[in-house]
Amino acid sequence: MTGFSIGGIRAQFPALSLTDNGKPRIYLDNPAGTQVSQHVIDRATRAMIEQNANLGGAFVTSQMALALVEEAHAAAAQFYNAPSANDIIYGANMTTMTLAMSRNLQKTLNISEGDEIVLSRMDHDANVAPWLLVAADTGATVKWLEFDTESFEFPGDALDKVLSDKTRIVAVGYASNCTGTINDVKSMCAKARSVGAISYVDAVQFAPHGVIDVQDIGCDFLVSSAYKFFGPHQGIMYGRSDVLESLFSYQVRPALEYGAPGKFETGTAPRETLAASLGAIEYIASLDDGYIGLPLSRNRVVSGMRAAMGHEMSLTRQLIGGLSSIKGVKVRGITSDNAMARRVPTVSITMDGKNPEDVATSLAKDNIFLWSGHNYALEPIHHMDLMKDGGVLRIGLAHYNTADEVDTFLERLEELA
Description:
With 417 residues, this protein is α/β, with parallel strands linked by helices. It folds into 2 domains: 6-37 and 298-416, Aspartate Aminotransferase, domain 1; 43-281, 3-Layer(aba) Sandwich (Aspartate Aminotransferase, domain 2), CATH 3.40.640. It contains 14 helices and 15 strands. It has helices spanning 6-11, 38-50, 60-80, 94-109, 129-138, 158-162, 185-194, 214-217, 241-246, 271-289, 298-324, 356-365, 378-383, 403-416; strands at 19-20, 23-24, 26-27, 88-91, 116-120, 141-145, 167-173, 198-202, 221-225, 235-239, 329-331, 346-351, 368-369, 371-373, 392-396. The strands form 4 sheets. Strands 4-10-9-8-7-5-6 form a 7-stranded mixed sheet, sandwiched between helices. Strands 11-12-15-14 form a 4-stranded antiparallel sheet, covered by helices on one side. α3 packs across α10 and α10 crosses α11. The longest helix is centred in the last third of the chain and has 27 residues, at 298-324. The protein is globular, with a radius of gyration of 21 Å. The model has no long low-confidence stretch (mean pLDDT 96).
């Protein structure tokens, strides 16, 4: 395959050819986790057969395992455009890593009563609850970034209103897993830095749909989960090198001698998921030129992601246009055609007189997969006063979805409406 071809793309994903009672599966549950390509599966299998050993040995399996670990960190550095592979930390998932890092920061920064933590009403709870726990344990004050429930964006001065010289941490989302809004995290991180605060960016929902450049953003931390961008269940964090080196880490004693990233990677990293994460980044890099494998380059990662973005943009316009024409359906996010670049293809809706869970259950009978409820986005659902009505119905596109799948979904939804 050369260049982006939806037929060629879909052929690489074994799950996309599965049927149930003769019905093909339509995966619109992608914000909660994407399917994986055969290359990712092959990478994991090879790791379990050929590279399954701990590090530091003189024998060949250990040496191959070390090479895999180094390749995986280098690939993630290319994916994030991190200055060094040593700035990359692998862990269980974004939530687990954020809970751990919040405690490291709490201890190192000596957060206490009188300090302030800025959180967002638009975020997934994985970038809210850990910081609320820090505040509860230390007496720190939480301040909130409030988004406009009509525009589904933050006013330009939202962060200015809550920042002060007491702010220690600013935790924000790159893109909302509820509204789909892409936030101006570069500006937010610059403002956090201006008052001496640490910036912590949740990029889980953005990572499958856009180019990440931590050096351009200027963040202190950024984290995503590989299973949201066609990889395994694993979290990948970037940390600014000087911050990482200064941080306390909760570790077992033999590992305390390590610098970053080792001092933050507790236990033995599973070889199969490291390999699969590497494979996912290799896959993304292939989406423009058709070549899967090493060597990776930043240019290939960017070109591959942009090829996927073009297809997704077309599908998003088709989806939102169709939803806007169905009576009783309200899109809880940006809908303007000329503002599509300010959102990811994660689209939440409500339907007059319909419970989201009931609609999701009906669609599941037609093998159309999607989620309903709060989707762990407690703050935005409460902020829009939708919890009492069962939250939202969330449709999430990925680059392997097709225009025919979008049409099938819209036709069935209109029948239900």
